TrEMBL record:
Molecular function terms from GO: histidine ammonia-lyase activity
Coiled-coil spans in chain: none
GO CC annotations, alphabetized: cytoplasm
Gene name linked to the record: hutH
Protein name: Histidine ammonia-lyase
Species assigned in the record: Nocardioides seonyuensis
Length: 524
């Protein structure tokens, strides 16, 4: 899957305290390798919660997660000499993932979020366990986490168990250079010692929504950038297809006051400002009454997508401020209580919502692209933007590529969160499938990136073919970016795949957005 923001220079250290980790900090650690430290306040909170666990562990009354089995086996009381084995067995048995490795940024993100929950003082781990998790992040040691294994309830058990396994010095990890090696070897190489998990620690390390939440935060960041880039692509298509910018006027948006719609329309107006192409057909001789929906309704679709992303961001903010564990330690009251906060439904739902957003924005982008290629709808452009139609096929198959991706995105838009399968002998009889929703969203975001890139590539070719009419300064900057990046303008057919991949990289890196913003300033 495409990494949408490339890793840059090593970022400044992120401090994890008793308050929530924010999206900016998560991106810094997950994508840019920032080291991590625990604040003194967090360490004090961890110590207070641990004292409660130690007291309950010494008591004769069984306490779930401390002196009992887990899930459907919670009725068995575990004697004190076997409790270290209980924690080891929990982690080993739950590290049952299968399939390809997930991306480094996802694993680092879920590790950071688990550390953030430990730092709240509601889980009962020892400070040395939390500090070792911070040490793995700081030294760039990334446990191998597999694609399949989480039902999103009780949290992302299998992915988090693979990370907990590394704290025990077991399993496989990748070091900072990406080399696969045994965890014990990687820890020793940077001077870290594995821990022997004490009462409740194994459970505290694996019982959270951290994987699905990390992927949600990463996707929100990507989609905010991609939706602004989609506005640029739409503006290029409106311009290249001799459409009008009058429909984006603020007074028209104001009578349907969705904030995302207004922002998208404002972007389109700004990007199209001073366009020689648009000005060329603005006079009284123009007999076009109104543009096709894919052009005219771009702000309505892109705007609804924006508003959905911001709803997802609100849910993510609440989840980032949560301490997800079961049982949870209430240190002030000196007790441990079971709860259902590990259920991933709130996160799973919005992950599914965003897959719908990605599919529909890609769908309208593909429709705009297709209009360039049909001589009956492209207003004077050659069929398929070909140099010598019949001899050359131009961008005919680029649209096929878009169509194939859009078709897949529609399948990925089918919600995962409604597909509960009971587990743990019917003790866990309703699960969220939030991890699955997150995994398919990552594929959706990657697909949207590729579809928008093909639209930008095709629209740029069309704008060149409108010469001597000149594009707007903003769209002209995007065309120059493509040409300066080695993507040639109109001409005889050539190997198209490398040009598509180059355009994908320019969209994914934010370069297309930056080119337009260098002219018009920050887009909404």
């Amino acid at each position: 899957m495409q990494l949408h923001v490339s890793a840059g220079p090593r970022a400044e250290a992120v401090q994890v305290g008793v308050g929530p980790v924010g999206p900016r900090e998560l991106l810094s650690v997950a994508r840019h390798g920032a080291p991590v430290t625990l604040t003194d306040e967090a360490l004090a909170a961890i110590d207070r919660a641990r004292a409660v666990v130690d007291e309950l562990a010494a008591a004769p009354t069984p306490a779930y997660g401390i002196s009992t089995g887990f899930g459907a086996l919670a009725t068995r009381h575990i004697p004190t000499p076997m409790r270290a084995q209980l924690q080891r067995s929990l982690v080993r048995s739950h590290a049952a993932g299968s399939g390809p490795e997930v991306e480094r940024e996802v694993t680092r993100g879920l590790m950071l979020l688990r550390l953030s929950t430990l730092a709240t003082g509601h889980t009962g781990v020892r400070r040395e366990t939390a500090q070792l998790l911070a040490g793995l992040l700081t030294h760039g040691i990334t446990p191998v986490v597999r694609e399949h294994g989480s039902l999103g309830c009780s949290g992302d058990l299998a992915p988090l168990a693979h990370c907990a396994l590394a704290l025990m010095g077991e399993g496989e990890v990748r070091d900072a250079a990406g080399t696969l090696m045994p965890a014990a070897e990687a820890l020793a190489a940077v001077g870290l010692e594995p821990v022997e998990l004490a009462a409740k620690e194994g459970l505290a390390l694996i019982n959270g929504t951290d994987g699905m939440l990390a992927m949600l935060v990463l996707a929100i960041s990507d989609l905010r950038m991609l939706l602004r880039t989609a506005d640029i692509a739409a503006a290029m298509s409106v311009e290249g297809q001799l459409g009008t910018d009058r429909v984006f006027a603020p007074e028209l948006q104001a009578i349907r006051p969705h904030p995302g719609q207004a922002a998208s329309a404002a972007n389109l107006t700004s990007i199209l400002a001073d366009s020689g192409v648009v000005a060329s057909h603005r006079g009284p001789d123009c007999n076009r009454v109104q543009d096709a929906y894919s052009l005219r309704c771009s702000p309505q679709v892109h705007g609804a997508a924006r508003d959905t992303v911001e709803h997802a961001a609100q849910v993510a903010a609440r989840e980032l401020a949560s301490a997800v564990d079961n049982p949870v330690v209430l240190a002030e009251e000196g007790r441990v209580e079971s709860n259902g906060n590990f259920h991933g439904a709130p996160v799973g739902y919005v992950l599914d919502f965003l897959a719908i957003v990605a599919a529909d924005v890609a769908s309208i982008s593909e429709r705009r692209t297709d209009r360039f290629l049909d001589k009956n709808r492209s207003h004077g452009l050659t069929p398929f933007l070909a140099d010598d139609p019949g001899v050359d096929s131009g961008h005919m198959i680029a649209q096929y590529t878009q169509a194939a991706i859009v078709s897949e995105l529609k399948r990925l838009a089918v919600p995962a969160s409604v597909d509960s399968i009971p587990s743990s002998a019917m003790q866990e009889d309703h699960v969220s499938m939030g991890w699955s929703a997150a995994r398919k969203l990552r594929r959706s975001v990657d697909g949207l990136t590729r579809v928008v890139a093909v639209e930008v590539l095709t629209a740029a070719r069309a704008l060149d073919m409108r010469a001597p009419l000149t594009p707007s300064p903003a769209t002209g900057a995007v065309v120059r970016l493509l040409r300066d990046s080695g993507i040639e303008g109109p001409g005889p057919d050539r190997h198209l795949s490398p040009e598509i991949e180059a355009a994908v990289s320019l969209v994914a890196s934010g370069a297309v957005l930056a080119a337009a913003e260098s002219v018009v300033g920050a887009l909404a």
